[in-house]
Design goal:
single chain, Ald_Fedxn_OxRdtase_dom3, 575 residues, six-stranded mixed beta sheet, Aldehyde Ferredoxin Oxidoreductase Protein, subunit A, domain 2, 4Fe-4S, iron, iron-sulfur, alpha+beta
């Protein structure tokens, strides 16, 4: 039976306990329920009252393809509401095979306490002094951790941004090559980890019993069908493996929804130069790797190894959101320079979406010229210096930067920066931005599927009709997927495959022994959202917070569409 590992970061005591009231929950369902139950909603997010919850999904560690996602939850230093940040990497699978479904970091040592690395093996929990890694970037730290704990371990770790409690700090997770290139990026979870003075958690599942199944044969049958579904779909079987998520650059640009120059235009003149197609061309020419999984057992394999013209490693997992945020939104058109910025963000431990918007707002405020990649890189690097005041402003994100420099064009909801789809031209995702408990978040209800890609339906992206209903249904389904440990990209195939959702249910049933139906999955998603709404209500949020900034009422070229939903209309998107 899976256990919850509770670690007191002040006393360095720990205990493994039964799931109790959390029985049957995993991933986002577990993080959000535990945060609701145990974290005072009005507490300071960097205080000892906050807890950092790391949870594997119900299917993590199993033979199910693409089931290696992990959820990280807490009260967010950025939004001041509830937060679940989601990441790939090797950590989730190894943690699940240790029969640990949740890790809870509690309490807080003194602010000047030495950093610690927590190691989890079959023999127990050990605390290792990590003072030598103080303000060390994540790539150097990960390399040292690999040498210390071995190739069969996996790590989650923070960089200087997390140690200095920046509101945009990420938690980085190591991939199959021990690169800290995967991120639980959104909402400042790295700052919460830093407030506990934890530099890294390392797990080694060597000798662990592994995952058990209530019905092993049934799981084999269902997981085989599941792999067929993913490999047989045009997006998960061809598009994403061949070009990565950056295949969307040209698609969204053509749709007139690629935010350009801090959301002033829907098309970027140099989109083809930063597209997935261009990246694939360069990787094939330079000797990079076009297709790889961020964790063992991924059938989609949308990650890659991106190298420069000399074949030197630049970054891995260079995704559409990052390419857009650090590129078109700031008028930067050189893909190699964007890749360098992605590496900087991963290395310092920063959310790339938040940082891309922060750079654009800095350009809007006259701090650096539009399109100047070198200046943007220098600005990001300043976050690593704990004594640099401007670095602290940058590391605290888009809203903070706008306040510091008097910029009024601020693309945030609940203080979290918007992702890579202009909500005027993709209104379904705009509804999601406005109403998700997480702050602006495309993954909370990816209506781009129905609005642009025409997966799972066809809803006109420029009209209001059907958008609220579409977003609501997707937010419910997404919350449930986040509880399963499955990658969100499986939704493309599930939406277009009649037995897709039933196959997920069959795997959960065979794994747990509890009969699970599509109605049960929907009920789970609804319950997760209600937990999150309740936490935010206690924290002081109201319906007035469920709206986009006023500047989105301006018409967006090339389709001259504008944001026209009222707060009252948007409430219909809530579960």
């Amino acid at each position: 039976m899976p256990k919850i590992l509770r670690i007191n970061t002040r006393t360095r005591e720990y205990r493994l306990e039964d799931m109790g009231p959390y029985l049957g929950l995993g991933g986002r369902a577990l993080t959000s329920r535990l945060v609701l139950n145990e974290v005072p909603a009005t507490c300071h997010p960097l205080s000892k009252e906050n807890k950092l919850v790391i949870a594997t999904g119900i299917l993590s560690g199993t033979r199910a393809a693409s089931s290696g996602r992990i959820s990280v939850g807490a009260k967010s230093p950025l939004t001041l509401g509830i937060k679940e940040a989601n990441s790939g990497g090797q950590f989730s699978q190894k943690m699940a095979k240790m029969d640990i479904i949740g890790i809870v970091l509690e309490d807080q040592p003194e602010a000047d306490a030495p950093l610690v690395t927590i190691a989890i093996t079959k023999d127990g929990i050990a605390f290792h002094d990590a003072s030598q890694f103080t303000f060390t970037r994540t790539y150097a730290t990960a390399e040292a951790l690999q040498k210390q704990f071995g190739d069969k371990s996996a790590a989650m770790l923070i960089g200087p941004a997390g140690e200095t409690l920046r509101q945009s700090a990420s938690i980085q997770f190591t991939d199959t090559k021990y690169r800290p290139a995967r991120a639980a990026g959104r909402g400042g979870m790295g700052a919460v980890m830093g407030s506990k003075r934890v530099k890294a958690i390392v797990v080694d599942d060597t000798g662990a019993a592994g995952v058990t199944y209530a019905d092993d044969e049934a799981f084999k049958t269902a997981s085989k069908r599941w792999a067929e579904i993913l490999r047989g779909h045009a997006v998960t079987g061809q598009g994403l493996p061949g070009y990565g998520t950056a295949i969307l650059v040209n698609v969204i640009n053509e749709a007139g929804a690629l935010p350009t120059k801090n959301f002033r235009d829907g098309r970027f003149q140099w989109a083809a130069d930063v597209s997935g197609e261009k990246m694939t061309e360069l990787m094939e020419k330079r000797g990079g790797k076009v297709r790889e999984g961020c964790h063992t057992g991924c059938a989609i394999q949308c990650s890659q190894t991106f190298v420069d013209e000399k074949g030197k490693y630049l970054t891995s997992g260079l995704e559409y959101e990052t390419v857009w945020a650090l590129g078109p939104n700031s008028m930067i058109k050189e893909i190699d320079e964007i890749a360098k910025m992605d590496h900087i963000c991963d290395d310092i431990g920063l959310d790339t979406i938040e940082m891309g918007n922060t750079v654009a707002v800095a350009m809007d405020g006259g701090l650096l010229p539009w399109g100047d990649a070198k200046a943007a890189q220098e600005l990001l690097n300043r976050v690593a210096d704990p004594k640099d005041p401007l670095g602290r402003i940058v590391g605290n994100g888009t809203a903070f930067m706008a306040e510091a420099y008097g910029v009024t064009r601020v693309p945030v909801v609940k203080r979290q920066a918007l992702p890579a789809y202009d909500p005027r031209a993709v209104k379904g995702v705009g509804v999601t931005y406005a109403t998700t408990p997480m702050g602006a978040d495309h993954t909370a209800g990816y209506a781009v599927c129905q609005n642009v890609l025409k997966c799972g339906g066809d809803v006109n992206p420029h009209n209001k009709a059907g958008q609220v209903e579409t977003s609501k249904a997707l937010q419910i389904a997404t919350a449930a997927i986040d509880a399963s440990g499955l990658c969100l990209f499986v939704a493309f195939a599930v939406l277009d495959t009649p037995d897709g959702m039933q196959t997920i249910c069959d795997m959960i049933t065979a794994r747990t022994g509890q009969k699970t139906t599509p109605d049960d999955v929907a009920a789970l998603g609804t319950s997760i959202l209600k937990d999150e709404y309740e936490f935010n209500r206690r924290a002081g949020f109201s319906a007035a917070d469920d709206q986009l900034p006023d500047f989105f009422k301006e018409p967006l070229a090339p389709h001259n569409v504008s944001w026209d939903f009222t707060v009252e209309e948007l409430q219909g998107a809530k579960a």
